[in-house]
Amino acid sequence: MTDVYPELRSACRFYPAIDNHAHPILTDEHRDRFAFEGLISEANGSALTVDAVNTVACLRAVPELASILKANPTWTAVKETRSKMDYQELCDRFMNPTVTGIQCMLLDDGLGGVEEFAQDYAMHDKFATSPTKRIVRVEIVAEGILKPLFKPFLEELSFDAASVLESFNSSFKASVTDSANDGHVAGFKSIACYRTGLDVSTADSMESIMKSLEDVLTMYRETGTLRLAHKVFNDHIVRMTLEISGECGKPVQFHTGLGDNDITLNRSSPAHLQPVIKAFPKTLFVLLHSSYPFTREAGYLTAVYPNVYLDFGEVFPFVSGAGQRSIIRQVLELSPTNKILWSTDGHWWPESYYLGSIQARQALYTVLSETVASGELLEKDAIAIVQNSLFHNANKLYNLSLDPDLNICKRK
Question: Which SUPFAM superfamilies does this UniProt record tie to the protein (predicted)?
Fold first, then answer.
């Protein structure tokens, strides 16, 4: 059967892509550190190991992975085959840029466990044709600064909150500013969605910030673990980041929507960010993960605020094919097509990059070809949407100054 839109299909399949949000893969030594079911779900416990494998998203992924592994199309066979394969060969099969079409990766290397179990961000250059860039996770930066500041007070009941806060503010601003001036850093990321919710306040009193800082120390003393999950202080960190970002022009990514059960779902909608979006008009906001299931709310924000962009990632492969196509349709309902960005949210396993790439490309073609067939869009405009969302929008937003490697998928 003749392909009705061969140029559009070619653009979807082969146009080079900038993966604007991903995470490092595991080292060979730690390749089995986490349950492989995390490839297709962010659930925990039996919801991951028992339930997730029964989703349509997983059932779809099985034959896609099995075809590359030359394994039987069952989840068990896929797991067994990959576990016996040389790790470098496994990575090459699923992450070679001739397969994924990824030209450049922007890696958030602040994910818990990265330092212990994952490859350094620069090691990922072999899986792309342009150098990898970092996304700096600001809550992790803040925790690293606080630990030595708290050390003198761990065994004492007294606490000079004002002095510690002053030292923290100075060090945090210096660190974020250094990152802003670092050519290896493309932007910043906040996980406020996980820690305290996206209803970030636009201002808090100095007294309330110091009280919140004391609460952080108290929990650190009690648990032995420093984890920033105290709303007033977390919001303070976000605001300082937004201010510096607005001055330097490097975007701030926000986890929105889809995540594990550590998220309070009704506080993960990007609609909660509207006050700070308005308060920091010079700051470039990137709403990650399609904001699913709040995609339409995210689309609205991109349409009415010039400083808001929407990433349609992570839903590949976490959501069924029908769901993925629905999400892309919702993105295109209102979002300006010069403000949508693609990502894999690849992490831990090389297969996550593969599925995130091929499924996104398939979904884009299906949705856009249907839109062209309905007479609502010219094919040339659909092709431009593909090229912009996969490459040019991110290239401009993150100031990468890359030329598209048009031969990336022709080197097989």
Answer: Metallo-dependent hydrolases (SSF51556)
Pull the structure tokens for residue 33.
């550190």
Share of the chain above pLDDT 70, in %: 99
Classify residue 154 by its DSSP letter. S
Q: What is the rounded CA–CA span in Å between residue 104 and residue 86?
A: 25
Q: What is the pLDDT of residue 155?
A: 85
Q: 296: buried, middle or exposed (CB in 10 Å: 19+, 13-18, 0-12)?
A: middle
pLDDT in tens, 154-172: 987 789 999 999 999 999 9
CB neighbour class for 171 (10 Å; exposed up to 12, middle 13-18, buried from 19)? middle
Q: Write down how long the chain is.
A: 412
Closest C-alpha to 315, from 262, 365, 284, 352: 352
**Angstrom distance (rounded) from CA 10 to CA 6:** 6
Name 41's Cβ contacts closer than 8 Å, sequence gap at least 6: 47, 48, 51, 52, 55, 57, 58, 318
Q: What is the DSSP letter of 155?
A: S
Q: Which of 72, 136, 15 is nearest to 388 (CA)?
A: 15
Burial 183-205 (b: 16+ CB within 10 A, else e): eebbbbbbbbbbbbbbbbbeebe
Phi, psi of 27 (to 5 degrees): -75, 165
The structure tokens listed for 335 are: 């979002």
* Residue 69 CA from chain centroid, whole number: 26
User: Per the structure block, which two tokens stand in for 5?
Assistant: 């839109």
Burial class of residue 107 (count of CB atoms within 10 Å of its CB; 0-12, 13-18, 19+) = buried
pLDDT at residue 1 in the model? 41
What does pTM read for this prediction? 0.97
- Separation between Cα atoms, residue 261 and residue 135, nearest integer Å: 24
State the first-to-last Cα distance of the chain, in angstroms, to the nearest integer: 25
Per-position b or e across 312-345, b if 16+ CB within 10 A of its CB: bbbbbbbbbbebbbbbbebbbebbebebbbbbbb
Span 101-130, pLDDT tens digits: 999 999 999 998 899 999 999 999 999 999
Domains defined for the chain, CATH in brackets: 6-410 (3.20.20.140)
Q: Which of 31, 24, 17 is nearest to 84 (CA)?
A: 31
